[in-house]
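Sharing a chain and its predicted structure for anyone who wants a worked example. Both blocks are below, sequence first, tokens second.
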Amino acid sequence: MIQKTVWFIENKDLRNILASHCGEPKRGYKIIELKDGRKIFLKSFREKGLLGFIRNVFFPRGKKEFQVFKKLADLSIPTPLGFGYGVSRTGSFSVWEYLSGESYLEKFNTVGDRMPLIKMLAHFLKDLKLKGVRHDDLHLENIIISNDRPVLVDLHKVKVKKEINRKEEISNISHALHMVYNEMNEKEKETFFKFYGATDLREAVESKIEALREHWIKRKVKRAFRKTSIVSVKDCFRFIKGFEEITEGRYLLTLKKDKKVDVIRYENCVKKIYKSKMRLKKAWINSVVLEYMKLKITPQIFAARIPNFLSKGFILMEDLTEKGEELDRYLDGRYESLKYSERKFFLKRISTFFLEMLKHGVFHRDLKGCNVFVTADKTFYLLDVEDIEFKKVGIEDVVRMLTKLNNTIPKKIYVKDRLKFVASLRTFSKNEKREIWKRVAEKAKREEIVYEGTQGLIREKWES
């Protein structure tokens, strides 16, 4: 049995440096600066349980990663330079040169013209395919852009074969693209598959990307009530990390009281008390998933209290009361006084907000004007987070949401502004947008317009 870390590294000085820096491996990494100013990247693999012990004895992950590096080097696949590995009783290490640069994902999110990056990724993935390289965790944070070239990292899930089959090829592409695919426009998508040289794979890749997204969300849903990087746990409370010290403060007023919820405004937050345990659970789960997505389209949720026999459950959330108002009231009171430039800016902001929902697969089952909040600076939020579903949002879903929205805002909103909103949905083709508008208009005419105006509940008819 291995009692201490044994280093399989040719450089004796580096072995001595590592021996002074390393105890038992813990999951993660460390950057070590050498006396000559160079840096090395030390990656740790912690093994748990009987299976982990067996794996560590017979095929430690640090060793596997170093062996994969040597195979990739022979194939001229760019990776950081590997120095060797170490094995201890509870895990293993791999040792690399430290590369300056940024992940492909960071570059994609900050660069102005993304087309050169997209072509670069297509060529890189094509090269992996031609050389028989499959990476089971090929997301864009595992590709580093260093000296204007892509470099593959995190190699312990890489397999090198004589050739990869169609299923493995689709897996490589889908894992690489799924973090950015919804951000890409149609021209960028066409360019990627054209430069990759397999336009026939697009439909299969898009199906796989959707499956990956659904799997990712299911994993986050299962962890919503556990202690994670996002959630902290204390007694019967669950907190979004960073808000553990939130308190209600002084009572101000009750904003809403009906069969489903009581909404109470306090000095430091708004408390939403749910009569249904299922709706409370859904509200918290959706809030956690949105936190993982880093998608700020609802008021910030601070905490949830799990209900018991003595009390109902509730969530504590950000108080937006004095920052704006619901969309139906806003439009009823301000729309007619808006200048052309102000209406144009308003339409641009709400269109961008709606596109963010579509790109991230957010569907709201009850998208009424009173469930969209608009602030003074034209930032938009969805209310009733429990009515959100995460899914691939298709034409049918958009028609449903826009029909509901269309009939819960004032009739006086110009038809041309409603048309401009639909026309801004870049994720759909011209024919699809034409179909959406036609179906929304036909459905809307059959129903009454009902919304909360500045003077209270208002009912209008399209015919009049």
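Comments welcome. The chain has a mean pLDDT of 91.
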